[in-house]
Amino acid sequence: MLLEEVSRKRRNEPDLKLFSVIAILIFLGMDIIYSSAFYTKNISFSLQAAITLTLGTIALFMGMAIDTKHWRKIAPYFMVFTLVLLLFVLKWGVKINNAKRWIKIGRFTIQVSEIAKVAIILYLAHLLDNTEELRNFKEFIKISLPVILTGALIAIEPSISAASIVIFVGFSMIFYAGARLRHLLLLTLFALLLIGSMILAFPHARERILKKTTGGEMYQVKQSKLAIANGGLVGRGPGRGLAKYKYLPEISNDFIFALVAEEFGFIGGISIILLFIFITLRGFYIAREHIHDTYKTTLAMGITVLFSLQAGLHIGINTGLLPPTGVVLPFVSYGKMAILTSMFLAGILLRLYYEIEDKE
């Protein structure tokens, strides 16, 4: 055993392929975001996007530069801080469209649910590494409580999509770490019933849900599908999309894929899908290479599932395959906290590749 450990060494090589794919998505995102706001001549919007990209780049390299063992030290405190923020936003958060999801600090707004996605991944990876009897039901419940609590607080805002993503990512990590499938299915059913009951208990939440069946949501889906169809094989060309001219609301966030497909065509759309498939497969590879280190393998798996899940949901909504909910496309959609957290987690994933050990 000792000789085996001595014969292992850090690979100490950056993952240039993964880094390049992420960089392509980021720069494509900046280009399409600029295109989406160009017709408004909104210089402030472009400036905010540039600032966000700069801060995101810092977050990316910070995630790459710091050894992942240091993140587990702060994970419990970060989780507690996030839960406090989630409680704070319910009481004093900025209210937009009958939902409290943001905290305003000066001219900046912070979407706490994005921070919660990072917190639950870091904390669960730390927690699962300290758990030996995960297949025991009591221990399984203990590990799952942070996921249920975080998802419930986000659901109350309400943000059904963000709550569902947090719960799915959290349960995926727990299952990957060795939990019994029947325990997971039982708790998933309980979580859905709990969150559903909490949402229906709040008038603004009920109103939000009922709006899903109105024409406004169907209008967005129809315009999104029309934009994708108008793109044809090669698209209208960069900056020449028509959907951004107020035909498709929230085009820089929830429907950015539709604009990509309109301006870059089927080739652009399928390229986005292929890039995210690469990220997913690369993430699974990194997780597998750390299979003997519970903390690192579950951390890599959590980040990978988050990216692939959000990308799949976003593209599914834009193409009309899924009902419309607010899900951004990682690295591409505009959203300050979404960009910052995605780039930070991407940095950690790149660092995990760097920390892969080889046998000589």
Q: Treating each run of at least 4 consecutive H or I residues as one helix, how many helices?
A: 13
Unreliable residue stretches: 1-8
How far apart are the first and last residues' alpha carbons, in Å?
A: 14 Å
The SSE order reads: HEHHHEEEHHHHHHHHHE
Describe the protein in words.
The chain has 360 residues and is mainly α. 71% of the residues lie in helices and 6% in strands. The protein has a three-stranded antiparallel beta sheet with strand order 2-3-4. A two-stranded antiparallel sheet has the order 1-5. Helix 5 (112-129) runs antiparallel to helix 6 (137-156) and helix 12 crosses helix 13.
Q: What's the short story on this structure?
A:
This protein is mainly alpha-helical and 360 residues long.
Please give the structural blueprint:
Blueprint: H1 2-6, E1 8-10, H2 16-38, H3 43-65, H4 68-92, E2 94-96, E3 99-105, E4 108-111, H5 112-129, H6 137-156, H7 160-176, H8 181-200, H9 203-210, H10 215-231, H11 256-289, H12 294-318, H13 336-354, E5 357-359
Antiparallel strand pairs: 1-5, 2-3, 3-4
Helix pairs in contact: 2-3, 2-11, 3-13, 4-5, 4-6, 5-6, 5-7, 5-12, 5-13, 6-7, 6-8, 7-8, 7-12, 10-11, 11-12, 12-13
What are the defining features of this structure?
360 residues; mainly alpha; three-stranded antiparallel β-sheet; two-stranded antiparallel sheet; 13 helices
